[in-house]
Amino acid sequence: MHAHFEQHVYHRHSHETYSFGVTETGAQSFSCRGGAHTSATGMVMAFNPEDPHDGHATDALGFTYRIVHIGPELVSGALADATGRKAGLPVFAAPVVDDAALAGALRALHAALLGDATALRRDELLTATIAGIVRRAATTPVAPAGGPSRAARIAGQARQVLHDRLRDDLTIDDLARATAASRFAVYRAFKSEYGLSPSDYQRQLRLRTARTLIAAGTPLGEAAASTGFADQSHLTRWFTRCFGMTPGAFRQASR
C-alpha cells in the first residue's frame, strides 16, 4: 500500500502477516503493545503478525507512507540456511525503528513490487530486506516454559470457534460453553492472548475472509452475506475503517 492520509483513522486491528512500513512525509501516531508511538518522516514501522494497532495522522498535515505485508512463511523461507532448514520466526519488540538503511531498503522493495522490476529482482530485494530488518531490528523469541497456560488454552479454543462458525451470531455464552469456562474468563483470556476482544477479532476475521473473496472476484453483496455482515454497506463501513480503502477500491486494485 502507498497512501496519504489526513483525516482517516484506522480502527484497532491486526494483520495475519508481518507488516513493514516507512513514513515518507509527516508523522503518524498509533497505539501498539500497550504504548503510544509516533513514526515520523524516514522512520520504519515493524508489526508482528496479530499485533493489534490503530493509527491516525499526528497533525493536520497528514502523512504519506508505504507498507508491505509479508506472510510468515515467506519470512521463514527468506531466513533459511544453505541446507534449506528454516529458522524460528523473528519478533520485533519495538514497533518504530529509526534506521535510514532499513527505510531505504523498504522503499526500494516497495517500488519494485509496484513497478516493472523483474521477478528475480523482486525476489532478491524481498530476501535482502527481510534479512536486513531481522538483523537490525528483531529480537530473539523466547518460548514459554511448561507449555501453554490455561488462559492461553481457553483463548485458543474460543478463537477456533470463531473460525469454525464465521457467519454465526455467536454470544460470549457460546464461547464459554465451548471452552468450559466462565464468560468473564473467556473475555479476559482472549483479550490478554490476542490483544482484541472476541467481537473485534470476529469482525476482523470476517473482513479478512471478505477481502479474499473480493480479490477472487466475488460480488461485494455476496461477499458481505458470505462472511456474516448485515449488508454491503456494513461491510464497506468496517472495511474502510480497518484497511484504509473501500471494498470497491480494493477490488479495482486487485485487478
From TrEMBL:
Keywords: Activator, DNA-binding, Transcription, Transcription regulation
Keyword hit for Transcription: yes
Pfam families in the cross-refs: AraC_binding, HTH_18
Any one GO molecular function term: DNA-binding transcription factor activity
SMART domains: HTH_ARAC
InterPro entries on file: AraC-bd, AraC_XylS_family_regulators, Homeodomain-like_sf, HTH-like, HTH_AraC, HTH_AraC-typ_CS
Listed transmembrane segments: none
HTH araC/xylS-type domain sequence ranges: 156-253
Keyword Transcription: yes
PANTHER family: HTH-TYPE TRANSCRIPTIONAL ACTIVATOR RHAS-RELATED, TRANSCRIPTIONAL REGULATORY PROTEIN
Name of this chain's protein: AraC family transcriptional regulator
